[in-house]
């Protein structure tokens, strides 16, 4: 969907009188969740509340995952939108959520998009990781890596990072993998030049394991 729609979301989420100019996130996430997350990132940047918003949404996501009633309330299509808007306004006030987070919940309720809330939160987390210079890398191997192999891999991958970036490495095991390893840096979200460098490097690492 178009930049115009994203700018409309930015205006809706803005808590200040600043012109509805989109502050672009450090990485682009596509789809509806990307548009909401981009608007949220822009609003949070302007109100200097990015860290607070991330913390609040991470906590809210945990609540969704552990509270079946809350989840049902959010995704139930038969409940009227205005009922959800009022309930979430009350929740935001009761739990002292920042205005930016409260605006996001209210806007998604108004637009009937609460079923996508977790996807929006995940997209926002990706943007915040990039904002902090974190590069998330997933390594899948047929056998668990020992500590020395993991350290060697981290050291090798760090060579591809820019000065202000840090590596967030997760290693998983997939016994069905025949030899070598798969290294991925979320192609959907990360600068393709970084992803292609890592793919070339994967072959070298695979030969060494």
Automatic annotation (TrEMBL):
Keyword Transport: yes
InterPro entries, alphabetized: ATP_synth_OSCP/delta_N_sf, ATPase_OSCP/dsu
Protein name per UniProt: Oligomycin sensitivity conferral protein
Main location: membrane
Compartments (UniProt record): Membrane
Family named by the database record: Belongs to the ATPase delta chain family.
Gene3D superfamilies: N-terminal domain of the delta subunit of the F1F0-ATP synthase (1.10.520.20)
One Pfam match: OSCP
HAMAP family: ATP_synth_delta_bact
Family matches, as NCBIfam families: ATP_synt_delta (TIGR01145)
Organism: Pararge aegeria aegeria
GO cellular component: membrane
Keywords: ATP synthesis, Hydrogen ion transport, Ion transport, Membrane, Transport
Highest taxon, organism lineage: Eukaryota
Gene Ontology molecular function: proton-transporting ATP synthase activity, rotational mechanism
């Amino acid at each position: 969907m178009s930049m115009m729609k994203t700018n409309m979301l930015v205006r809706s989420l803005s808590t200040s009188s600043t012109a509805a100019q989109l502050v672009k996130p450090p990485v682009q996430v596509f789809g509806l969740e990307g548009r909401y997350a981009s608007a949220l990132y822009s609003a949070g940047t302007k109100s200097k509340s990015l860290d607070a918003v991330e913390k609040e949404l991470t906590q809210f996501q945990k609540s969704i995952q552990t509270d079946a009633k809350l989840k049902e309330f959010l995704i139930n299509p038969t409940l009227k939108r205005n009922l959800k808007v009022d309930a979430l306004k009350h929740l935001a006030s009761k739990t002292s959520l920042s205005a930016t987070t409260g605006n996001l919940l209210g806007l998604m309720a108004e637009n009937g998009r609460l079923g996508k809330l977790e996807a929006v939160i995940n997209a926002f987390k990706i943007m915040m990781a990039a904002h902090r210079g974190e590069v998330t890398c997933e390594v899948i191997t047929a056998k668990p890596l020992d500590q020395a192999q993991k350290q060697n891999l981290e050291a090798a991958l760090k060579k591809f990072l820019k000065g202000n970036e840090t590596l967030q490495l997760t290693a998983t095991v997939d016994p069905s993998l025949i030899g070598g390893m798969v290294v991925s840096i979320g192609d959907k979200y990360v600068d393709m030049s970084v992803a292609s460098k890592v793919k070339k490097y994967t072959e070298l690492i695979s030969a060494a394991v």
